[in-house]
Amino acid sequence: MNFLELTTILLLLASVFSIINLRLLKLPQTIGLMVLAIGLSISVLAIGLISPIFLETVSDVIRSFDFEVLLIEVMLPFLLFAGAISVNVHELLKDKVTILLLASFGVLFSTFAVGSGIFWLVEQPVFELNNLGLSYIDCLLFGALIAPTDPIAVLAMVKKMNLSSTTETRIAGESLFNDGIGVVIFLTLLNVKLEGIENITPESVSMLFATEVIGGVALGALIGYLGLKLVKYIENEYVELEVLITLSLVLLVSVISHQFHFSGVLGVVVMGLFLNRNIDTDDKEVGVQKAMGDYVYKFWHLLDETLNAILFILIGLEIIPIFQNFDSGYFLISILTIILVVISRGVGVWTPIKILSFFKSFEKRTALIITWGGLRGGLSIALALNLPDQIGEGKNLILFLTYMIVLFTILVQGLTLKKIVK
Predict the structure, then answer these.
(1) Which of 124-149 are b and which e, b meaning 16 or more Cβ less than 10 Å from the residue's Cβ?
(2) Is 399 in contact with 361 (CB distance < 8 Å)?
(3) CA angle 415, 421, 422 (to 5 degrees)
(4) Which among 104, 135, 192, 371 is least buried, having the fewest CB atoms inside 10 angstroms?
(5) What Cα–Cα distance (Å) separates residue 105 from each residue in 67, 115, 204, 372?
(6) Rounded Cα gap, residues 329 and 331, in angstroms
(7) Rounded to whole angstroms, how far apart are CA atoms 312 and 67?
(8) What percent of the chain is helix, strand and coil (3-state, nearest 5)?
(9) Are 174 and 106 in contact, with CB atoms under 8 Å apart?
(10) Pairwise CA distance, residues 252 & 242, whole Å
(11) Which DSSP category does 282 fall into?
(12) What is the three-class DSSP state of 28?
């Protein structure tokens, strides 16, 4: 199938599933779409028991989506930019130390806590998984890909929670930045895996990490500053041109980041903060106005909603190829892994909040809300699919665990988050 045919299928599914959810299920949009997509996948798997040819045909169509490339290189930059231009940038700048500490410590702690825990679990004879040959680096890779939360899912849920602007900004900002940090840690560990730990020095790892982070932030700041000057020069007179400029800048940051091995995720987030809807420019003739017209923000909101719908349908459909290669013994370890991930997330959030509470005020149960609001999504699945074949049979286990955690966080945590907040 060509790109046009695949896009048509996804948009049709998004439209039909959205109508069904609005009229019948009445769940939050992201959750409702994913539930319907999973239902479709389970139906396909059931039919596949009768007709294996049908199952293989559908699996080939889903594999042709090339999920990891589609998400990381195409959808994620647009989704993160749309999230960054809508977050309250004034609150974010006032609370930048809190947000950066939550994002960095939380991801690092979860990476090593979950990675070490999984390495210990697979070595236990009761699970009969020690024949998979998963090394400690492989388990750390899993910890890194499952540590960052999904800002798309988190932002969609948080907007409907009626939280204070400070808490909402802390959750949204932490989610936006822990994505970038998580990807950088994952790529650093992946480089160690591919090069061989004996060929890696602390200096080379530090240089790779610094290049990704500093390069991504600097590139995003430079393009964002130039983009802000450009849209201010247009003065909201040609809104179609502003849309064209923002689209091209997002793609420009992604392309340059890919060429120079910078973090494109951090780049588009930082650029989005420069073009944020809450930044006002003082013009003597027209007074205070937004950097870009409302038309541009409405366009990005529409694009955000459309890509969001497609993303969660893709997540639901990915159950077909993943569940074709799973072992029934994976279920018990997946339950333990979910518990481990939630506890690690809780400790990674509670610790910096406890330290910062001596200097800043936090709403009651902020740590609990941020912990339970740590939804995982498409990024984790895309990174898991991007794991090298060198991992061997253990890759199937990592894929299964990743998918089960994504399902739990979106369906269980997502549906109960409002009650937790109340």
Answers:
(1) eeebebeebebeebbbbbbbbbbbbb
(2) no
(3) 105
(4) 135
(5) 29, 15, 22, 17
(6) 6
(7) 12
(8) 80, 0, 20
(9) yes
(10) 15
(11) E
(12) coil
Per-residue pLDDT for the chain (422 aa), expressed as one digit of tens each? 677 888 898 899 999 999 999 999 998 888 899 899 999 999 999 999 899 899 888 888 888 778 888 888 888 999 999 989 888 888 888 889 999 999 999 999 999 999 999 999 988 887 777 777 788 999 999 999 999 998 877 877 777 777 788 888 888 899 889 988 999 999 999 988 888 877 778 888 888 888 999 999 999 999 999 998 888 888 767 788 889 999 999 999 999 999 998 999 999 999 999 988 776 654 444 433 466 778 888 899 899 889 988 988 988 888 888 887 667 778 889 999 999 999 999 999 999 999 999 988 888 889 999 999 899 988 899 899 888 888 877 888 999 999 999 999 999 998 898 888 88
The partner residues of 287 in beta bridges, in order of sequence, read 283
In 3D space, the residue among 338, 319, 330 whose CA is nearest the CA of residue 385 turns out to be 319
> What tens digit of pLDDT does each residue of 99-119 get?
999 999 999 999 999 999 999
- The dihedral of CA 98, 101, 102, 104: what is its sign? positive
Q: Name the residue type at position 346.
A: G
Residue with tokens 């339950």: 335
DSSP state letter for 364: T
C-alpha–C-alpha distance, residues 89 and 275, integer Å: 10
Phi, psi of 288 (to 5 degrees): -85, 130
Give me the residues paired with residue 283 across strands.
Answer: 287
The neighbouring-strand residues paired with 288 are 282
Domains of the chain, with CATH numbers? 68-421 (1.20.1530.20)
Within the chain, what is the greatest distance between any pair of CA atoms? 75
What's the CA gap between 278 and 90, in Å, rounded?
Answer: 7
Give the three-class secondary structure for 275. coil
